[in-house]
Every structure is written in C-alpha cells, then in structure tokens.
C-alpha cells in the first residue's frame, strides 16, 4: 500500500480504518472439542488462556502498526451450533436442544475476553508502550535530562519517561476514580487536609531531600507544571493527587512533606509522605499539634 499511496497516507488510512477480529469459534468447536489432541495438552481453562493470549498478541501487533479502531468479537453460544448439537446430543434426531456445557464455555471465555480488553484499553492515548522522553524505553530520572529529546505532544502518551505517567494519564486516572470522591466533596465540604502515602508515582518532590541518585528536579521534568518548574515530580506536570487535592478544595497541588520551607499552614492542609518511611513521617506530622493545638488538629 505504501508503494501506491505513500507512507503518510497509508498511516492515515490505517489509523482511521475499522478492524474486526473474530477468533475462537473454530478453535473450540474443531480444535478442542474435535480430535482429542488439544484436550490431551490443555484443560479448558488453560486452553481459554492460550487463545486469549494469541488474541492479545495479535491485537497488540495491530496497535503497534497503527490501528486504532478495533472490534474484537466474542464467541457465539457454540453449544447451539447445529453441528455441535448433532455430535453431542444423546439423540441428534429428536433432542435438538443446545449443549449447555459448551455454551457455558463460550460465556466464560467472553467474560475473560472482556476483562482482558478492558485492561488493555488505551483511553484515547496513541502511545501506550513507550515514554515521551528520549527513546521512551529506558530513560528515567537522570537519563531523562535537559539534553533528551521529548515528543511533540505528551498528551498522546501514557508515560512521560519509561516508568512514570504523563500529566494527561494522571488526569485520566483522577477522572476515572470512583464517584464517591464527588460524594466526599458534596457531603464534607470542610475537608481539612489531604495526606498521600505513595511511591515515585505520587511523590511531588520528597526525593529532593533524601540521599538518592534518582531525582527529577531538572528539565524536561515539570515542563507543563506551573511556571515550567521541575518540582521533583517524575512527570511533565501534575500528579493524580494534585488533581484530587484541587477537586476537594484543599489546595492547587500537594507539596512534599520533607520540604523544610513548608509553613505550618501548608503542613496542616496536606502533603505527600514517602512510602519508605511513611509511618515515621506520619508520627512526625502528628506532632504539629504542638504548634496548632490539639483541638484544631483533631478538627
């Protein structure tokens, strides 16, 4: 196709085309429930996993080649296929009812397929298996640095570096959170603080204040943050906890707990506590009662 219409038009054609994938019917009716070769190697459960894995590999191959609109068809009620009834009925001439145990296999397979497809959803992102910074397959921390090339549109990427998501992906995570967060906002408008226990995907800069070579307080990290500031967040912008904090009305973004310049007011309204020493830091956090009073803290 590229020889006839060129690479760009071919790429556009593939990205706008609709792909239909239908696998499994013959695999079960003929290959598994036909000659007993497959049944000697696989249980029905492991054979379902085998077919799903093949389907997933094929789907990922299409995505890698530029396909974006893909329909994956599940199994029909294979126990109701006429040939299956004929081969499995006690009296094929009189009893033409569906073979329930085989239709049950199809239903189980479809549930597994739906679960796998849901897990693979790209949520509108075009690049899901490499990061925006550098090659996107190995760069993180110092390997993603001011000399690294970055993609032209990070909103199309799930990952900023080879480990950590983009601001766009974090926003998607925030938007997909259970709506009970909305209920919290409505029912408890006086939320006093937000405290985050997490790792580098939630860290707004605690790494700046500990002895570690793995930092992100330099560009291109933070290029989409306020004033293009590299705060120590391992992303191009805000994290999911920043969006949550703003949504519930606590603050626009969450500061790192270990920042020595934080005021008592900032500590009161929330921060991120490093996962590695989270309980010790939380005990320290409780000690701010000496500065603000027990009753006020408890409120």
UniProtKB/TrEMBL annotation:
Gene3D superfamilies: SGNH hydrolase. This is GDSL esterase/lipase. InterPro entries: GDSL, GDSL_lipolytic_enzyme, SGNH_hydro_sf. It comes from Rehmannia glutinosa. Belongs to the 'GDSL' lipolytic enzyme family.
